[in-house]
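Annex B.
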Amino acid sequence: MIKAIIYDLDDLMVNSNPLHTEASDKVLQKYGVSQKKLPEHIRAKFIGMRVSDILKNLIDYFQLGVNLEDLREKRSAIFLELVRKKLQVMPGLFQSLKLFRQNKFKIALASSGTKKYINIVLEKLKVADYFDVIVSGDDVKRGKPDPETYLIAVKKLGIRPSQAVVLEDATNGIAAAKAAGCFCIAVKNSHTPKQDLTKADLILDSLTDLSLRHLRSISKY
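Phosphatase: predicted structure tokens.
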């Protein structure tokens, strides 16, 4: 029986990929590089990963002589300012949260983002009260596609992984959810590099389409 819904954040709840790209390019431009110079398949793999892990990859790929923590702090300041000014919500988010709350599901947020970023988003959208549990990228040793993020979430929720449905948009996130033993519904996003959603139990075009019928169809709850 499904008892909880676990939301990813980036590009599932909010359209953040354009802001992530803008922040990274602004901090990288002083080194004469841009994410646009990366092959599409590499950029696609970044979706769903922690920023610190992405920056490690960028430093290695472009062979930058830069301190990871310094780069992360500079990028974070730029990104959070963009979030405060420009972040947009994805269609169907508020509708889906109300649906699950009205039907007595526990709700968690399990994101690769930092606690600071998550708190800014929840305050901006005024949805913090919907979430019983929040897991951030700061809480894990290994980011997605490792299942640790979702294993921590179900443990905090006090349920078995098979009692949770994860909502995801990224190949890395889907892999993490399934490796954790959860059901997974993938939601398409046209704003990110193409993702492989085929490992999900169900694929939807938007959160707007989500209904309790979909939970029943994948879990028989």
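The chain has two domains: 4-15+88-219, 17-86. The chain is about 45% helix and 10% strand. Further annotation is deferred to the next reporting cycle.
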